[in-house]
Amino acid sequence: MFDLSHIMELMPDITKAFGETLYMIGISLTIALIIGLPLGVLLFTTDKGLFLENRAINSVVGFFVNIIRSIPFIILLVALIPLTKLIVGNTIGPAAASVSLSVAAIPFFARIVETSMREIDKGVIEAAISTGASPWMIIWNVLLPESKSSIIQGLTLTLINLVAYSAMAGFVGGGGIGDLAIRFGYYRYDDSIMLVTVAILIVLVQLIQFGGDRISKMIDKR
Fold it and tell me: Which of 86, 91, 150, 176 registers the highest number of CB atoms within 10 A of its CB?
């Protein structure tokens, strides 16, 4: 049964957990953008028939991207404990969970960037090459502008996945909304907290999707 007075008592914990969730996904999304974007560009431009074609680099990078993407996140959390301890100094809390979240987000977003660029008309790329444009100019002036709407949609999808992953991080003491749901909702059989945490995650995902769709439509000039 939903107990509003009980929820109000736990409001400081709920607020703290929500802040931790935003902290985790904020760090992870930033790292995914910084590393995943160039990684996705590399996967696309080194593929067969492209201006930086390199089968060896493409195969190696693609292999490692596929390996990480194939590992369930809950297993990845455990597998990366040594790396997390090395980077952060401990294995619990939102900062520690951000390591695993970032590792999971980078290859996911990289593949989205690669797929977004495959939607670009090859004629546009060939025209840029024929004018003598350097690879950097083609990437900066053609590939990124032409695929930016799809990349924004991919970034939105990545962010939504990070929200789901951050909730799973609660199982290993990662903090955030997931941790609150586990400690109060699951272990103490508190249905009120479970309902509130689920509602918060649903609202957060809806806001992210709405914002991502609006931004994508605004920058799409097609």
Answer: 176
pLDDT of residue 221: 63
Residue given tokens 């004018």 in the structure block? 131
Q: pLDDT per residue over 19-35, tens digit each?
A: 999 999 999 999 999 99
What pLDDT does 26 receive?
94
Instruction: Give the length of the chain.
Output: 222
Q: What share of the chain is helix, strand, coil (3-state, %, to 5)?
A: 85, 0, 15
The structure's pTM equals 0.90
User: Cα separation of 130 and 124, whole Å?
Assistant: 10
Question: What's the pLDDT tens digit per position in 107-121?
Answer: 999 999 999 999 998
Angle 111-214-112 (CA atoms, 0-180°, nearest 5)? 0
* Domain 4-219 part of CATH 1.10.3720.10: yes
Say if CB 15 and CB 21 are below 8 A apart.
no
SS (H, E, C) 173-214: CCCHHHHHHHHHHHCCCCHHHHHHHHHHHHHHHHHHHHHHHH
Provide the residue ranges of all domains of the chain, joining segments of one domain with +: 4-219
